[in-house]
Amino acid sequence: MDVQETIRQQVTSHPVVLYMKGTPQFPQCGFSGVAAQILKACGVTNYLAVDVLQHPDIREGIKVYANWPTIPQLYINGEFIGGADIMRELYQSGELQKMLREAGL
Fold it and tell me: Is the CATH number 3.90.1150.10 carried by domain 3-102?
């Protein structure tokens, strides 16, 4: 299976997917840490976190998949939402919480 198909399966078979550097418990960059903290603040604890440092093919492939050059990347119900800055803006406006509720989370 090619990396694009792997990514497609990950984002479509899990309600929330966060591609990040490190893990939610041990983020390896500040932006990834912020993204994990925002999800935690929204009450989302059960999501697929993919450590791109452990998967270099996904690290490069996800940039192509979303046409977005940076990591972290958040997906809700298969839809690309954005990176840490967009997540922060959506969280502060209440939109992220609304999106998560609408997704049944």
Answer: no
Q: Which of 82, 66, 76 is nearest to 4 (CA)?
A: 66
pLDDT score, position 104: 78
Domain boundaries of the chain, sorted by first residue: 3-102
Q: What is the 3-state secondary structure (H, E, C) of the chain?
A: CCHHHHHHHHHHHCCEEEEECECCCCECCHHHHHHHHHHHHCCCCCCEEEECCCCHHHHHHHHHHHCCCCCCEEEECCEEEECHHHHHHHHHHCHHHHHHHHCCC
Any idea which residue has 């839809």 for tokens?
79
Residues found in the chain:
105
Q: Which residues of the chain have pLDDT under 70?
A: none
**Token pair in block for residue 41:** 């603040």
